[in-house]
UniProtKB/TrEMBL annotation:
Its EC number is 1.13.11.-. It is an enzyme of class 1 (oxidoreductase). PANTHER family: BETA-CAROTENE DIOXYGENASE, CAROTENOID 9,10(9',10')-CLEAVAGE DIOXYGENASE 1. It comes from Aeromicrobium duanguangcaii. Binds 1 Fe(2+) ion per subunit. It comes from the Bacteria. InterPro entries: Carotenoid_Oase. Keywords: Dioxygenase, Iron, Metal-binding, Oxidoreductase. This is Dioxygenase. Belongs to the carotenoid oxygenase family. Its cofactor is Fe(2+).
Length: 505
């Protein structure tokens, strides 16, 4: 491995820190690395694996003002690139306005998710709640050859070089970015059209908006999605002709909001509602559908079938699990992050555009979340999804599940005890001929070896285990969302003789 330490972060976290989401598998990094020709410790890098895997991570560098929530951590991008049977690694902090201000101050300046806004040391801020730091530590997507990082509660989008992981500045959409409301966690890129769809939300009417950015990076569509009040939507989906948004019955308690307290409650007597709108439709074109009460954090895909729009995602049986008095104080405090406590399972909704009726069904009894598909099937009928299972009681991924939506069959792979993965991206092999003809790529934190690895599976044979395992420069923090971008979609990738030259090194 050709290794260089290129950055060292200022961190004021205490050496005796006992917070489980700032220690152990979630121990943040303070080093930024450039590593070429990664060491292969098992198997062999497939010659037809070509492109980059990017993962975003919450990586705090300062103690919170009072109560730390893992979503508060600053964003760090990890890149593992594959080309010609070799691999490289980069990691960089996302240089957001909030991160730079706190680095200069040497402390946290904004209130986090588990804190009241009034304790913030600055009156400005981001997020639908306001007075929060835009950590840009939630998702990462690639649009027009540039990676974009996002904040879970609406913020700026930061442009990231998908090779070096360096921050290139804020996305502006040629001067039309909605900086007043920001963009929510999960914009969706349609590989077929080059369009990116997004939504945002606010405590101000109409409470939600939806937009489309075209393949030239222009904001070409932006309309109101009126809601009954402030909501907390997190994800969306799209088909060839429609976008699907939602109004879930887990949102800030209206009475608490009057006291400027942001307490999320599941209003279980209310239905879940889904908005189906033509991709460039107007407010008047929205069709609303009701379904069983739940909260959905993530959707895997949507597609059209006859008169129906079909949506798949993770239904929460219990979005607000009660404190049952078991487990450590940390397990009880963060029970809302444990998939097994919320009972998240893959689910299907069918919205009939002719009758206005909804049909829904559970697809599996397996508890899982953070699902990915072959991105080239986004918006059209897919067969396979690849999800993460969790360590009971914890926000940690301890295995993978491949679900076959056609037959209901599942394939699983469990990591060893003390080994935790990330959201797993599907990378079609060069010249792939079928939906699962490719590889699954993820990053793991191995507490037993005090090391981290990039791991590659054959997507058609998940249960066989990894086809290769590559050592990273150090053990990295556990993380969540990721994406894959094929080399052919990246500028300079195929016009240079080497990956190092392609990334400008």
């Amino acid at each position: 491995m050709d290794l260089e330490l290129v950055g060292k972060l200022l961190s004021t976290l205490p050496e005796d820190d006992d917070h489980p989401y700032r220690t152990g598998p979630w121990r943040p990094q303070t080093n930024e690395w450039v590593a070429d020709d990664l060491e292969v410790v098992e198997g062999q890098i497939p010659a037809d694996l070509d492109g980059v895997y990017l993962r975003n991570t919450e990586n705090p560098v300062h103690p919170s003002l009072k109560n730390y929530h893992p979503f508060d951590g600053d964003g760090m991008i990890h890149v593992v690139g594959f080309r010609d049977g070799k691999a490289f690694y980069r990691n960089r902090m996302i240089r957001t306005d909030g991160y730079l201000a706190e680095q200069e101050a040497g402390q946290s300046l904004w209130a986090g998710l588990a804190e009241r806004p009034q304790i913030a040391l600055r009156e400005d801020g981001w997020g639908a709640r306001r007075q929060m730091k835009d950590a840009s530590s939630t998702d990462v997507v690639v649009h027009r050859g540039v990676a974009l990082s996002t904040f879970y509660q609406c913020g700026d989008m930061y442009r990231i070089d998908p090779f070096s992981a360096q921050t290139l500045g804020k996305e502006s959409w040629n001067g039309h970015f909605p900086f007043d409301w920001g963009v929510s966690a999960h914009p969706k890129v349609d590989d077929r059209t080059g369009e990116m769809m997004f939504f945002n939300y606010s405590k101000e009417a109409p409470y939600m908006k939806y937009g489309v950015v075209d393949d030239k990076n222009d904001l070409v569509h932006y309309v109101d999605i009126p809601l009954p009040g402030p909501r907390l939507p997190h994800d969306m989906a799209f088909t060839e002709n429609y976008a699907i948004l939602n109004d879930m019955p887990l949102f800030w308690d209206p009475e608490a909001l009057k006291q400027n307290a942001h307490v999320a409650r599941w209003h279980r007597d209310m239905p879940a509602r889904f908005a189906v709108i033509p991709r460039r439709g107007q407010t008047k074109d929205i069709m609303w559908f009701e379904a069983e009460s739940t909260y959905v954090l993530h959707f895997t895909n949507a597609y059209e079938e006859g008169d129906e729009v079909v949506l798949e995602g993770y239904f929460q049986t219990d979005p607000e699990p009660a404190d049952n008095g078991t487990g450590t104080k940390w397990e009880r405090a963060f029970r809302f992050l444990a998939q097994d406590r919320m009972e998240t399972r893959l689910h299907r909704w069918r919205f009939n555009l002719k009758t206005g009726l909804t049909k829904e069904e559970r697809l599996t009894d397996t508890v899982s979340e953070f699902g990915m598909i072959n991105g080239s099937f986004g918006g059209v009928k897919h067969r396979y999804s690849y999800s993460a299972t969790n360590k009971p009681g914890w926000f940690l991924f301890n295995g993978l599940v491949k679900h076959d939506s056609l037959t209901g069959a599942e394939e699983t792979f469990a990591f060893e005890d003390g080994v935790y993965g990330s959201e797993t991206a599907m990378a079609p092999r060069v010249g792939s001929t079928s939906e699962d003809d490719g590889y699954l790529v993820t990053l793991i934190s191995d507490m037993n070896a005090d090391a981290s690895y990039a791991v590659v599976f054959d997507a058609a044979r998940l249960s066989d285990g990894p086809v290769c395992k590559l050592k990273l420069p150090e053990r990295i923090s556990s993380g969540t969302h990721s994406t894959w971008c094929a080399g052919e979609e990246l500028r300079r990738w195929q016009t240079e003789d080497s990956a190092a030259t392609a990334v400008g090194l």
